[in-house]
Amino acid sequence: MSEINWNSVISDIQLREARENNALESSRSGRGGGWLEAFAIAMGKLIERQGNALMRTAESIGDEPTAADSTRLTVQSQMYSMFIQAVSTALKSMGEGQTAMARKSG
To answer: In sequence order, which residues have a C-beta less than 8 Å from that of residue 69 and are 6 or more positions away?
Structure first.
């Protein structure tokens, strides 16, 4: 069974909270972050929801998990990991696309 890197999960959550706080500050100051920032914040909220579901599953298993429990947790953990990777790749690609467009127009 693959182990969950909780330090990474906590770090991701803290980073999302910092970004959300920054977005809140940006909206208060009147400058918008644009569609890429909005997308990142929305995806962060979805990742947080998935992370919370994963935590609830892990907590519900208890000290003596059955094989089915272990399999369920492993599958959910891998799906969470794949989702984070997909969002990361999407954000990176969109950011690189914006950079390329800015170079061409500038």
So the answer is: 61
